[in-house]
Structures are given as structure tokens and as C-alpha cells.
Amino acid sequence: MDIQAAKKEWSRISTCEQHAISSETLVGDMASSFMEQASGNGKIILEYMDLLCEIAASDEARLARPAVSALYGTIIEGLSDNFSDFGVNTCNLVLARILSFVRAMPQGKEMNHLLDTLGFYSTDEILRRYERLRRISPIPESVKKGVRKVIILSRATIGADVAITSIIVHRVHNSFPDAELILIGLKGTEEIFDNIPRVRFVELHYERHGTFFDRTTGWPRLHKIVQEEHKGVEPDEILIFDPDTRFSQLGLLPLAKVKNTCYFGSRVTPPDGTNPSLSQLTNQWLDRLLGENYFTPPILSLPAIHLKSARTALQRARGTGCDFIIAINLGIGKNIKKKIPDPFEEELLPALLKEKKTLIFLDSGYSSEGFKNMQALLKATRARSIPTDFVDENGLSNLKIGFSHGVVGFRGSIGAIGAIISESDGFFGYDSMCQHLAAAAKTPSVILFAGAPNPRFFARWRPGNSDSVTIIPAKNGGSLSRKEISGLTEEVALEMKKFRNLLRE
Hints:
Blueprint (H helix, E strand, L loop, with lengths): L2 H12 L8 H17 L7 H10 L4 H20 L4 H19 L5 H9 L5 H11 L7 H6 L2 E5 L4 H18 L4 E6 L13 E5 L8 H5 L2 H12 L7 E5 L18 E3 L14 H13 L13 H16 L4 E6 L14 H9 L5 E6 L4 H15 L5 E5 L13 E6 L2 H10 L2 E5 L2 H9 L3 E6 L4 H7 L7 E6 L7 H23 L1
Parallel strand pairs: 1-2, 1-4, 2-3, 4-5, 6-7, 6-10, 7-9, 8-9, 10-11, 11-12
Helix pairs in contact: 1-3, 2-4, 3-4, 3-5, 4-5, 9-12, 9-17, 13-16, 14-19, 16-17
């Protein structure tokens, strides 16, 4: 859609005049037009961002919500998931344009004042700093010895924190033996970094799926936390590790001087033409930064209480006679493209249960949608005369299952489901958080990877510990035929049976 035509249509919509299309169609057309320009590597029209920001900032949620989705779901994620230098550069222009818009709004007053105080008065100054930041300079040994604190930012998603941040935490922990590590992240993140010596967790609230201003105005809170951590130490005694996090708007917003900031450009294409996973890419970056040469896989450090509860519950389950326990999580992180449509999930459980003495722990996640989906699957399973039960994390250690073959629904924290996956014989899921938990726990896994926008995305997000993982690529779930869906069900069951046979050998 031409930008001028889009402006006229928005004027009609916003003034309640008669208009030909809905606001959803308008923002969708604008986002598609912008992405077509970007995919052609031609001249991009950033005026689209100005209009999308105006709509996203609307007080009317019915108007704002589709524009926020277009900005972040279609454009920013689309450019980031391209994993190319052009995608990164274009994404930076988009984000900088969004920040410029927010700075001029009442909701962005605090951010604007802080940026002015730090000497960043314009978009160009922010972008120039980013270009300096992305150049990797090895940290001299003399500097390493003087570091007293290292601040590590979470990626704000558990899957990425397992695949990327856990590697950074453990390698920095080894490389800076005298420094305190401060991990800043969302509530729940601490459960995969529990009880690591010298690591302190600081919670930072951020609405990943919030409003326009939820997503754009949180940086001053982070900056304040970082400044508090600077008290009592000299500027050069503290380093910040930014793994390309949403907290800093993918590295654009400053938290310290460039020389004290270690930024991981996770979305670029390696110059050697290889296609590494994000875990491999993280290690390569750390090798160059720290002057080292070794590989650290993703690591889980789960709370002992969850591990004990899961171990007790699963041992008791094995005592009933079951000899193969499968953990399943069907989360998709609100990305419907990753989901295989009905009746895949309903047919999958009976297909996995064709092998006798099999017990499935079906995790709901914490969303209401996930819980409803789990309840529906348990109901459908019972209709096939397969026994089911349900337990939450508080009742896990006291769980007494009255059957050795069936499905147990589960709802609990990240640490609790991580512990169940760790204690299970096999795991199944989509491309989501739990595939990374399973890989880090070295639990044999079958992952159905649907909706990858390009081969680079598939390569980057494949699990870091791949020896015990079977990945089944699939087309966008919505484009699958009934026959293809049944074929995927059979393939998943067959691959899981292979893991079972290996366990018996």
C-alpha cells in the first residue's frame, strides 16, 4: 500500500468517517509493503513506521493492538529472523525511528530526558554508537584482572536464555573468577540459573506481549538498576554483557560506555559463510572476546527442590510398572506458525501410547490458553479409554498415580517442568522454550520444527546440544494437508520409539 494512500485511510478511520478497509487490514498492508521493500534490498520508506507508531499509540486498544503486532511481530521479528547484515541494519533503522517517535510522546519523557543527559540527542548518534558497539575487541588480561562486577542481561525469553545466556554466564563465571555476576531478567529466569556461586539475580519487569509503550519505555528502569550496581566500583571495574536483548532495544540504548559493554550481535551472518546454531555462535563470539578457544554447551542450573520433587514423582511412577516416561510441552510462544493444526495433538498422544507401559507428562505452560488446551487433550484421551490424571508443582512430590500407562497433565513453573524433562526418558515439543530445556538436560528429544521463515532461522534456533535431539522440519502448520498431519504423527511416534529401543539396549 502506498504511504500516502495509507495516511488518507487512517485519517478516515481515526475520524470515524466512512472507510473502505478495517484498521487491521490497513496496518497489515502497510507492514507487508514495508517488508516487500526490505526483502528487495531497495529503498525503504520509514514514513510507514511513523504512521504505524501513531496507530500503535492510540488509546483505543482495538486500533492499537494490530499496529503493535505489525511493528513487532511482522517487521522487527521478520527482519531479525532473517539473520543477515541487511536485516540487522534495517531493523536498527526501524527501532531508532520508533524510539524517536516515543521520545516526543508524554509517555517517553523519562527516556528522552535520560538520552539527552547521556548526550544522545538524535537517531544518528544512537546508530553511530551501535556501530562502535558491534566491533569485537578482545578484553586484555590486565582488564580482566581488574573487573569486580559483570552485569549480564537476560534475553527476556527462557529458550534464548538457555541457548545463549546460560553459555555467557558459565563462561564469564570461569573467565572472571574474582568478579560478582549480576544477572538481570524477568521473574522466573532465575530458576534456570539457581545456586551458581557469585551469581546474583535482579528482577526486571518487561511486558513482552504488552502495549506499544510497555515495549518501548522500560529502558530507564534498566539504566537505573545498572547505575545502582556501579556504586562502590570504578567505571573500569564493571562490564556489561548484552546478548542482543529486548531490554536494551537490541543493543541500541546505552547502559555504559562502549568500552565497558560487550555486545553479542546474534543476528548477523558469520563472515566465513557457515550457518552455526546460536549456541555455537555465542561460543565463537566469546572465544574472540575472551581470548579463549573452547565450547560450552547450554547448561541448566535448576532449583534442588524441583529436581527432588520430579525425581520422587517419576521414581514412584516407574514403581507402578511403566518403563518409559515422555515429557511433552506444546507451547509455541504465541507464534501460531509453529503449531501443527488439529487433529495432530489429539492423535499424537494415543500414537505415543501404542507402546505399552508408557507414561506421558503433558505440561500446560502457565498461559490460560495452554491450560485449556491441556484440559481438552486430557478429555479427548479419556474418551479413548486411556486413563489420565492431573497434578501441579505443589503436589508433584506427593503424586501417586493409579496407572502405569496413560497421561498426567501438569502445570508448574519453569524450574518444575525443567526438572520433569530432566528426569524423563524422552521429550516432545515444537520449536519453543522447552526444546532448549530438554537439549540442555540431554534428554532424548523429538522436536517438530514448523514455520521457519528461512534456512538460517532453522540453523540458528536448533538446540545447542544436538546429539540427543531429532528435529523434524515441517511446513507452516496452516499449509499442511490432513495426510501430511497424519504422517507427522507417525514420524514423531517412530522417532520416540527409537529412543525407547536405545534405552532398552
